[in-house]
Amino acid sequence: MEKQAFNIAVDGPAGAGKSTIARMVAKELGFVYVDTGAMYRALALFCLQREISPEDEALVSSAVSKAGITIIYEEGVQQVILNGENVSGLIRTEQVGNTASTISAYPAVRAHLLNLQRDLAARTNVIMDGRDIGTCVLPKAQTKIYLTATPKVRALRRFKELKEKGVMCNLQEIEQDIIERDQKDMNRQIAPLKQAEDAVLVDGSDMTIEEVVSAIIRTAKLHGLVV
Ligand code: DC
User: Is the Cβ atom of 110 under 6 angstroms away from ligand 1?
Assistant: First the structure.
């Protein structure tokens, strides 16, 4: 009989450190890391490249049906392929992130990605991060984590990251942006960001990355993960 895959779902607001932490957990456990935000970002890029207004739900909904998204792994790192082109680098801008937040509120956009996300987790041990993984995409995930931190802490982290890359930025603006993104992601009608009833809350505001990684691995072991 085929062994059941172990799935870890990590949800939380923008800038909580989900991707850094999920990547480290994946490495330590030999799991595959699935970044679902990257898929929404690829659809956002598709719209931006075609100058489709993200606010126009009808147009966005019909356009995304033409966006073929494939996920591949190169040396363990997720790559997002949009209609044959690797767009993994192009999707990492604030504009693409904000557009992804807007269009991810549309049912057709979410439906376009749901099966792809579920298929990736069906036969493989994965740690998948996003906004609705524990509540919608993988409701049967053995371990669910809701990872958060205060807007101030998240803004400061993003500020430092951008500074390191040499990008000009303003801390207040970043914090405002984060608060607005939280509002959009938490208040949409379909699959809003919220803590699943059976998720473990981890507030990383005063924790190191290593402490959060250990907390997640400990929780997964409590839930039956054998390593
Ligand atoms: O995690 P991220 O910043 O790459 O995500 C970009 C946007 O995509 C986020 O603001 C909301 C949307 N998203 C979503 O609605 N559901 C997910 N599972 C992942 C991301």
Answer: no
